[in-house]
């Protein structure tokens, strides 16, 4: 059972609040669509890399986000040494090539000032220090890859689809969805399909690709609005008149917030040697984390986190044995690292959120045993049988990770 013990402040103060530990969670850089619709003029050969992979633009975004984090936590606060040391920084990624590549790119930026940590030879990439990135196989991953094999989550999603509010949404938009199906030849059967289709269109537009004439401005905008609210609903957020489904949020994001709180506890009691834990993941991961913080709606509404968006949770020592949390957010590569602690549920308007308050307000999302939590309950209701967020047809085979890493490193170091 997670427990954080806070000692009373007995009046012994430190000179100034001291930043002692940070954890960051980011969404990977810009990618290609996971798939496209049959009538799209932009099939896989139209893209620089295969389906669902980080593009050179995404690599550049993550490198720059890494530099931004370096400027804040290496240069400004001097929390982390400019020279890489394995006892200071631990990087973990989902076992997805786009998240792994983004981690490599970000850490190349973060340690761009590292010296004496790579061969000083003519043929070595200038200034590049290899940083280890750890990952757990997807089939065993419940922390960073939220689309996991969790029977209870599929059961909850099936129950959600059977709610009157969702049936009403699908019926109200029947003619619109029929038009999308007929024109795109894409199977749109549920909210996941609606979001998947909207996401493909959004990425094509982001890369300045001309959309087919039948996708008018009104159709595009309605697809995006419906897709974004569908995304929130799928992952337990308040949407379509339904309140937040706390159990769904706990199953998708509880393992991550539980680990974050555990890391903080261990830092305080001296069993966590690291100064920095970095997690490289997905929009689903980052949006889910923001839901556990109670900040998703206030910060983004129904919008997605952008590519490279980063949440940083800072642990500060305020007094002897008294600690506070500051939560910060960089919306994308162009945005600064803003403080959003006032948007975190329970934290109020003060500069720091008292640690005990921060922990107490996360209790609804704590997961002690994800395997037990994911067991189906004996309730009458439909079960979602299609793996959550599995696209139709299945994703194209990815490039080998080794080849992508080479491309990533070569591109970054050519900047």
From TrEMBL:
Matches recorded under PANTHER family: ACID PHOSPHATASE 5-RELATED, ACID PHOSPHATASE-RELATED
Catalytic activity: a phosphate monoester + H2O = an alcohol + phosphate
Keyword Ribonucleoprotein: no
Homology family: Belongs to the histidine acid phosphatase family.
Entry superkingdom: Eukaryota
Signal sequence segment: 1-15
Protein name: Acid phosphatase
UniProt GO MF annotations: acid phosphatase activity
Keyword rRNA processing tagged: no
Gene3D superfamilies documented for this protein: Phosphoglycerate mutase-like
SUPFAM superfamilies reported in the protein's UniProt record: Phosphoglycerate mutase-like
Key words of the record: Signal
